[in-house]
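Posting here for the record, re: coenzyme A.
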Amino acid sequence: MTEHIRIAQEGGVLTLTLSRPDKKNALTNAMYGTLTRELGRAAKDPTIRVVLFEAEGDMFTAGNDIADFAAIATGAKPAETLAAHPFILALGRFPKPIVAAVQGNAVGIGLTMLLHCDAVFIAEDARLTAPFADLALVPEAASSWLLPACAGHARAYAIFALGEAIDGRTAERIGLATAALPASQVKARAKEGARTLAAKPMGALMEIKALMRDSAAVVAVIEKETERFAARLKTPEAAEAFKAFAERRKPDFSKLS
Ligand code: COA
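Prediction output follows.
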């Protein structure tokens, strides 16, 4: 266990468990650091054949820790400290299969990281949101490309701009998830899926993934989004959004342009 991430390796499967349930598994810079390091290790280590993401508690993750965003918005920290970026790049470049087990809410990167997973087992009543406009931000993790490609422009726009949620069943229907299941079965099915993949010929699995997903193109979109995301973090609109979250009130963007 390091920095709210539990790490376990068994039978070729590296399981990375988000373990900060009291804060709804909101991802801190330290957590991203651990996840990025583990993905780097998994990519090189031949004994790791599959990565499995799962989460403790009642939700997958409430997304990026808003205090880390706020530190950049107020100028307390430079935008370069945003540790989500190396994690997103590591995900976009990861050559081996990634499996995810998702229950409850998955907000922001909790949704966008699923676009980089090869098998997603999700609770039927899970709630996926990526309300970037409400935070005065823009999509990340190549989701401005990958989500419309999967959900269609109008549905993706509703998620990004209107803050609409999709449930687990919808995620399965649009191809964002492999299977929507009763919540109690999600982790076991994901583990079984990861083990099944770990027993397959890794060379073939890696070639299939490389053919299906052009990682250089994905990285190019990530870089473009990150530049805009970092700039947006420093806007008065974003500062108001993060302040409102801390003060548990609705943001007021009416006087900002
Ligand atoms: N960053 C930092 N802390 C967060 C957080 C986040 N993204 N999401 C939740 N938390 C914290 C809350 O501040 C609260 O802390 P406290 O107990 O010290 O007050 C704790 O986690 C529980 O959250 P709470 O809001 O009471 O839980 P909930 O079940 O009522 O609502 C969410 C859950 C996910 C709907 C809600 O917390 C939320 O909207 N979070 C922000 C999501 C977000 O915008 N993420 C950024 C995406 S880019």
